[in-house]
Amino acid sequence: MSIWFVYLPNVFMRFVYNVFRKLIHDNTIVLYLDDILIPAQSESEGLEKLKRVLKAAADNGLEINFKKCQFLKRKIEFLGYVIENGTIQPSPSGYENEEQRRHECQRSTA
Fold it and tell me: pLDDT tens, 68-80?
């Protein structure tokens, strides 16, 4: 394996960040690796922001995998949290997974 594979995620993230820099600074999107969240107060605001995101992606040669996309959701699970109605709560499934992970770590060290 080439040493360049080690740097590819870093290079990709820098490229994606540069593509969406203005939208990130305007609080239009939240970016994590290849996940883009578009928070909005209304459907029309969400659609307007989505147009800006898709235009920025297209202008820079990024392709969107629409099979993996979810649009106009009022409740999402993201990075172990549930985001809904302006609140952020720990995900119940994330908590169970964390408990299972701790249990497995305890068993493996015993």
Answer: 998 989 998 988 8
